[in-house]
Amino acid sequence: LAIPVQEMPTQDPAARGKNVSEVALGYGECQARLEAERCLGCKNAPCVRGCPVQVPIPRFIEEIQKGDFKAAADTIKETNLLPAVCGRVCPQEKQCQLECTVGKSLKSIDNAVAIGRLERFVADWERENNKVTVPEVKPGTGKKVAVVGSGPAGLTVAADVAREGHRVTIFEAFHKTGGVMVYGIPEFRLPKSIVQAEVDILKKMGVSIETNFLVGRTRTVKELMEEDGFDAVFIGVGAGLPKFLGCPGENLVGVFSANEYLTRANLMKAYDAEKSATPIYQSRIVAVIGGGNVAMDAARMALRLGAAEVHVIYRRTRDEMPARAEEVEHAMEEGIVFDFLRNPEKILGDDQGRVTGMEVKKYELGEPDASGRRSPVPIAGSEYIFDCDTVIVALGNESNPLLTKTTDNLDVDRRGRIIVNEDQKTSLDRVYAGGDIVLGAATVILAMGEGRKAAAAINTLLK
Amino acid sequence: MNRIISKKQLSADVYEMTIEAPLIAKSRKAGQFLIVQIDTDWGERIPLTIADADPAAGTITMVFQTVGASTHKLAVLSPGDSVENVLGPLGNPTHIEKFGTVVCVGGGIGVAPLFPIVQAMKEAGNTVKVIIGARTKELVIFEDRMRKYADELVIVTDDGSYGRKALVTEPLREFCEADPKPDMSIAIGPPIMMKFCEKTTAEFDVPIMVSLNTIMIDGTGMCGGCRVTVGGETKFVCVDGPEFDGHKVDFENMMIRMRSYKDREDRDHHTCHIGLGIEPHAAPGGK
Ligand SMILES: Cc1cc2nc3c(=O)[nH]c(=O)nc-3n(C[C@H](O)[C@H](O)[C@H](O)COP(=O)(O)OP(=O)(O)OC[C@H]3O[C@@H](n4cnc5c(N)ncnc54)[C@H](O)[C@@H]3O)c2cc1C
Ligand SMILES: Cc1cc2nc3c(=O)[nH]c(=O)nc-3n(C[C@H](O)[C@H](O)[C@H](O)COP(=O)(O)OP(=O)(O)OC[C@H]3O[C@@H](n4cnc5c(N)ncnc54)[C@H](O)[C@@H]3O)c2cc1C
Ligand code: SF4
Ligand code: SF4
Ligand code: FES
């Protein structure tokens, strides 16, 4: 326990506010081995219980201690197919690292073994040294499986089902694969080349990919099964329906959903104004509404696109923010201003319909609500005007109804999420679902976990 | 994929392009549109209506006006080239039924997306009266095609160089005054035209459908960039539309929103003319 937590090197905050290269630079070999030494290899492995897909954490860390990084990577991949992604984007402080014995005995979550950083290190090492092995694919079974959506859930299903020798086709609405990992999470947090490398492996495994294909419109689920001969379908279409404020002025020019803002910025590469054709709003003072990862990403992207001042407006306080701790820290370092206990009442515009500011109300924390978080209570008469020219609404996503509405007899709940049983099977035979369309906006690792369960069920079905 | 089969210049800045897209050709219905992107890494995704389709040949036809960078880049592609990304069919199909008498108004490039609706309305047994409006003679498109389906066809131009010298609202008003008055009307064109068509029909209590052409990105309901206010509620044009009850649409807000990226577009428009060597409104092209 004498070794301190190994900090991950990062780009200088002043410099990185002007580029989109990755902020966290990752461990080198020495650092990784030092950090690995901090793990006690606990028999009961509480960390594993904290991980939604039960990565065999002590085992992979032991391989790092031995210096066998390839073995470490293979160990992680027994349960997690996208370690380079999860190492970067998992909320570790709420999952594996929360349970870590080292952190507990040093009385601070900040002192837990940096499992995520180690996971990232081995995955990057494997990829950068061309050591990635393409999983073995069993002889063809002649069965066909359609995977709808190429987010983490869909990619996971594709890999697991293809391994059994079934022919997999991924259908993706966008012109690029990866789901939120390419259109939402910015380059500076998750380089797109990493996601592309994962997709390339799937291609090598024989998975076909059809981009620009909107299931429900280009073909329906029924047509895929009855006319195109697919034996099973997995639906992993994500959440993908932006929430708006529902307050006056939300349709003024200069009010964006984080989805629009980030899609233009990431998928369409608006950060390169010379080459990219997509327009992006020229902002001076940006207000981002929300406190999750989406809000952090939008705020930090706005800064990189040239805003002079970026504010995050959040109803509660830092302790209640659902965003990953590291992102909040990075955002603060970069100079993003956090206005806690505030919420917009109304967005104001000029006679051209362009945003000029917001009427903001102050809040205080009241009693804990059902989720255990202290709920914000408005302070009467506390309204004031906040000047800004851009408002980015980052309140998260609800379920996009396009696919569910065009698929007869597919049961959804009140909030439009697809209802599944313990095998991820929907109300339709041979149709499975998982990820955000089942969970509501969740996380990459949970989407992957559901994908694995669905793939196992599909593989059993097609035996 | 998406190979260009043919390209025709219909007027000074309007092109008709037919591309291979068998699945879309098979499933599309009147009123639906595409999202087209010419360059996967750097291109903008732009919405274009499916003006026609041939399911047997597996082709779809789009008619577009060169207004900015993306449409100009599209216009310089030739048969044999491919359009990198084409997504569709998007949006809800037009509600087609036997209404009785239907007036269809198309302004400028809006005449192209109007055509499949005229066709479908006629096939559903309606009496179809069509109004085509354009700035000048050179910009009148689809006249012959419309004639095949329209029971009555009126052409108006702003400068009187062809047909009547009038705005589309004039013949629309006359059709509304006629007995029996129209059971339904549809307007597709510039927002300002749709707004005035709405006003005209409102006076006569004639229902009107309008097809909105907001800015879009994904076309699947994910970004909210296409949102408009309809009947006091926020709607997404790409998935809730593109057609809405014209009497409920907040046109003022829509027109304001469509100017969101004006500065950037003006810059691109300028550079792309230089880059592609195209003069805006160049010499009239042959038919
Ligand atoms: C900005 C942002 C930041 C985030 N940050 C984090 C983070 O740091 N850590 C974390 O764990 N999670 C994060 N999340 C959440 C995480 O990205 C999602 O939970 C996860 O991506 C869900 O995966 P999925 O496979 O269910 O769907 P998605 O990743 O949403 O992918 C669904 C795909 O399906 C496609 N699709 C939709 N409908 C159709 C159709 N009808 N036909 C064909 N294709 C279709 C979509 O285009 C999309 O590509 C973030 C989310 C956002 C928006
Ligand atoms: C559902 C739908 C269907 C459409 N169908 C057709 C069609 O069949 N044929 C066709 O020519 N156009 C159609 N449009 C309009 C077309 O999408 C735009 O003309 C195109 O996006 C312009 O792209 P650009 O890069 O060439 O121009 P930009 O550089 O983006 O814009 C140049 C100029 O065009 C204006 N403009 C931008 N977007 C639009 C828009 N959506 N509508 C009108 N003007 C716009 C700008 O204000 C600017 O003045 C449709 C739009 C929608 C939403
Ligand atoms: S997948 Fe996520 S939660 Fe699991 S060990 Fe890796 S970083 Fe931790
Ligand atoms: S709980 Fe912490 S110390 Fe124990 S095995 Fe897991 S990572 Fe290592
Ligand atoms: S274009 Fe994105 S929601 Fe309509």
What structural category characterises the helix and strand content of chain A?
alpha/beta
Q: How would you spell out the order of helices and strands of chain B?
A: EEHEEEEHEEHEHEEHEHEEEHEHH
Rg for CA atoms of chain A: 23 Å
In terms of quaternary structure, what is this? Answer: heterodimer
**Backbone shape of chain A:** globular
Instruction: Enumerate the distinct ligands.
Output: flavin-adenine dinucleotide, iron/sulfur cluster, FE2/S2 (inorganic) cluster
Q: Estimate percent helicity of chain A.
A: 25-40%
Q: What can you see in these coordinates?
A:
The mean pLDDT of chain A is 93. With 463 residues, chain A is of the alpha/beta class. Helices cover 33% and strands 17% of the residues of chain A. In chain A, strand 11 and strand 12 form a beta hairpin. Chain A starts with 12 loop residues before the first helix and ends with a helix. A five-stranded parallel beta sheet of chain A has the order 3-2-1-4-16. In chain A, strands 6-14-7-8-9 form a five-stranded parallel beta sheet. In chain A, strands 10, 11, 12 and 13 form a four-stranded antiparallel beta sheet that branches. In chain A, helix 5 packs across helix 8 (115-128) and helix 6 packs antiparallel against helix 8. The radius of gyration of chain A is 23 Å and the shape is globular. The longest helix of chain A has 18 residues, at 444-461. Chain B has 287 residues and is α/β, with parallel strands linked by helices. Chain B has a domain at 101-212 and 223-255: Rossmann fold. Chain B has nine helices and 16 strands. Chain B has a seven-stranded mixed beta sheet, sandwiched between helices. Chain B has a four-stranded antiparallel beta sheet with strand order 1-2-6-5. In chain B, strand 14 and strand 15 (233-236) form a beta hairpin. The two termini of chain B are 27 Å apart. The relative contact order of chain B is 0.15. Chain A binds chain B through residues 173-176, 211-214, 217-219, 240-242, 244, 250-254, 256-257, 259-260, 263-264, 268-269, 272, 275-282, 352-353, 400-402, and chain B through 23-24, 27, 37, 39-45, 69-70, 84-90, 217-218, 220-225, 227-229, 234, 239, 252-253, 256-257, 259-261, 263-265, 268. One flavin-adenine dinucleotide binds next to strand 4, strand 6, helix 2, helix 3 and helix 9 of chain B. Chain B: It holds the Pfam family DHODB_Fe-S_bind.
